[in-house]
Write a structure and sequence with these properties.
It is a single chain. The chain has 275 residues and is mainly β. It has helices at residues 5-12, 44-59, 133-140, 149-154, and strands spanning 64-75, 78-89, 93-99, 105-111, 115-120, 125-130, 160-167, 170-175, 180-184, 190-196, 202-208, 225-231, 234-246, 264-265. The protein has a 14-stranded mixed beta sheet with strand order 7-8-9-10-11-12-13-1-2-3-4-5-6-14, covered by helices on one side. A hairpin with a 2-residue loop joins β12 and β13 (234-246). It is globular, with a radius of gyration of 19 Å.
Length: 275
């Protein structure tokens, strides 16, 4: 029996697959510049210095990483929650594993520099599309560059080189790639970020950090909640815990190349996309 990849796409969108948007590539970029003081007495130069030190720690994180948690998907009046695990290797790949009610794997998405590979266990098929905005839209119905997601997940930002200012204890600026960034002047941690995707659509990220003000063992604090807003009607809230980083690949780490022996399907980009 022939498998229709577009039929599979229609059935899984806008359900579980939308949560797979929470992935991507790229690492931390360079440090910010200097500045003055706001009306509340928070020194801009001090906030920038703290941000620079934090970003340097993130650049030095070990390449292999793993984090567990849950994701809430909110689409208009519909809210769904799933248990998930994220694993990856910096500048190589990320895999998101979605679990069913009995801890069985129901879906996984492997994201590389060139391809997005979605394994749909219920249909015994692998869907493969290009790892770009059009490929992400064909797979999930949302058009944005998947490479944005790992910096968002890891709390990495680029050099703040334009429009740096501080107001009400919150520092803001624009990075060299055009991303707007807001930083808490007291904690020195990222509050929010935004950038513009295809067709002028905005991509927003908000953060919740652990209450403790100090990281352990020189490792930077990692976010415990990441809220991603893609438009007014959709929102992904990731609750993350037990971040782990490894200098070498752990023995029990998922193999990037090892996927189920399901047939691989290549849906035509632009057809069957949910509107």
């Amino acid at each position: 029996m022939l498998i229709d990849p577009l039929k599979i796409l229609r059935r899984i969108f806008p359900g579980v697959v939308l949560l797979l948007l929470t992935l991507g590539f790229a690492g931390c970029a360079g440090g910010p510049g200097q500045g003055g003081m706001d009306g509340g007495g928070v020194e801009q130069a001090q906030v920038l210095r703290g941000l620079r030190q934090d970003q340097e720690k993130r650049r030095q994180l070990s390449a292999w990483w793993r984090v567990g948690g849950h994701v809430e998907m909110k689409l208009k009046d519909d809210t769904r929650r799933y248990r998930m695990e994220l694993v990856g290797k910096r500048d190589d790949f990320i895999r998101m594993i979605v679990f069913g009610p009995f801890k069985n794997v129901v879906m996984s998405l492997t994201m590389g520099e060139e391809w997005l590979q979605l394994v749909n266990s219920s249909d015994h098929a692998i869907l493969e599309v290009a790892a770009d905005s059009r490929g992400m839209e064909a797979l999930t119905g949302m058009a944005f560059n998947p490479a944005w997601m790992q910096p968002a997940l890891m709390g990495c930002v680029g050099d703040l080189g334009e429009g740096i200012s501080i107001d009400g204890g919150v520092l803001s600026g624009v990075s060299g790639i055009g991303e707007k960034v807001w930083v808490d002047g007291v904690s020195g941690m990222l509050k929010s970020r935004s950038r513009q995707g295809v067709d002028g659509k905005n991509f927003f990220v908000d953060y919740v950090w652990p209450e403790t003000s100090r990281s352990s063992g020189g490792q930077p604090l990692m976010p415990e909640q990441v809220d991603i807003r893609l438009d007014q009607d959709s929102k992904l809230v990731m609750y993350l815990k037990d971040w782990n980083f490894y200098s070498i690949r752990p023995d029990n780490f998922p193999d990037r190349e090892r996927l189920p022996s399901f047939p691989t399907l290549y849906p035509e980009i632009g057809d069957g996309i949910a509107q």
